[in-house]
Amino acid sequence: MAFALGPKALAAGYRLSAYEAVGSTSTEAMAWATLGDPGKLWVVAKEQTSGHGRRGRNWQTPAGNLAASLLLTQPGHGATSATLGFAAGLALEGAIRAVAPSVAVKVGLDAASGGGDRLTLKWPNDVLLNGAKIAGILLEAVTRPGAESVVVIGIGVNVLHAPKGVPYPVTSLVENGADISAETLFTALAEAWVDQETLWDEGRGFSVIRDHWLKRASGLGAPIAVKLGEDVFRGTFETIDDEGRLIVRAGDGSSRAISAGEVHFGAAATAGH
Ligand code: BTN
């Protein structure tokens, strides 16, 4: 099966560059930008040989998983770019829900009592299934000399395989009973993106995106620990603000807005180490 864009993405002017294998779809997308590509370009590959994640971590994409990067260009300095990650998270969550509905909602006893959502979004840009990471999103932005900002949204999904040897819980869609391919999920993602980008509206619609994101957020109102360099800041995950920053309320009532950091919930948040 080949990667393809659906009717909505094509009608909205998106293009696709698909590879068997590349080092990193995001690096490839940035290279297209350097060559003057105007954006609205999806770069997708069946396999990545040197994919990268946040905090300089390696990101594994063996064949069967999804590695997709979206190149966008915007006039101006791109200050709103950070909020694009939340739109991307919602698009991905919606796409997974559309193509693998059975993994998204609890069945059995839980269903009888109203069911429950297994698919959640973790600040800033992860998608979790039953609390384990199923996908990660990495935003990379540069400003071109002509004051145009270039953003690459890199999206990696564990469709068939969950990575080995990572320091947090991980899972894959297939491990959870979904019978889907990376290609099917990609088409759904690119379609869902069109709706989220319309809502995002160059940043003007972030308040709507923010509301939708908070409804699906993991750990809202719960203890949280945020690693900031060598320091750990503990408190309660209160909300995200209108720039997408994490708002954490400390025990003394003070709150802090955090724009980058590694987040832990639950036992790890209260363990005091
Ligand atoms: C994270 O650390 O959670 C973000 C992972 C982002 C991985 C994706 S896979 C497609 C794109 N290409 C890369 O090299 N990275 C991103």
Helices and strands in order, then pairings?
Blueprint: H1 7-11, E1 15-22, H2 25-34, E2 41-52, E3 58-61, E4 66-75, H3 84-99, H4 101-104, H5 109-112, E5 119-122, E6 126-129, E7 132-143, E8 148-157, H6 182-200, H7 206-215, E9 223-228, E10 231-240, E11 246-249, E12 255-258, E13 262-265, H8 267-270
Helix pairs in contact: 3-6, 3-7
Bound molecules: biotin.
Biotin (BTN) binds next to helix 2, strand 2, strand 3, strand 4 and strand 7.
Structure notes:
By secondary structure, this protein is α+β, with helices and mostly antiparallel strands. It contains eight helices and 13 strands. The strands form two sheets. Strands 1, 2, 3, 4, 5, 6, 7 and 8 form an eight-stranded mixed sheet that branches. A hairpin with a 2-residue loop joins β9 and β10. α3 crosses α7. The chain is globular, with a radius of gyration of 18 Å. The chain starts with 6 loop residues before the first helix and ends with a helix. About 3% of the residues have low confidence. The structure holds biotin. Biotin binds next to α2, β2, β3, β4 and β7.
Distance between the termini: 47 Å
Order of helices and strands: HEHEEEHHHEEEEHHEEEEEH
Q: What gyration radius follows from the Cα positions, in whole Å?
A: 18 Å
Q: What is the molecular shape?
A: globular
DSSP helical segment count: 8
Query: How many DSSP-defined strands?
Result: 13
State the major sheet: 8 strands, mixed
| Structural class category | alpha+beta
- Percentage of residues in helical conformation: 25-40%
Oligomer: single chain
SS strand fraction: 25-35%
Mean pLDDT: 89
Bound molecules: biotin
Task: Identify low-pLDDT runs.
Answer: 109-115
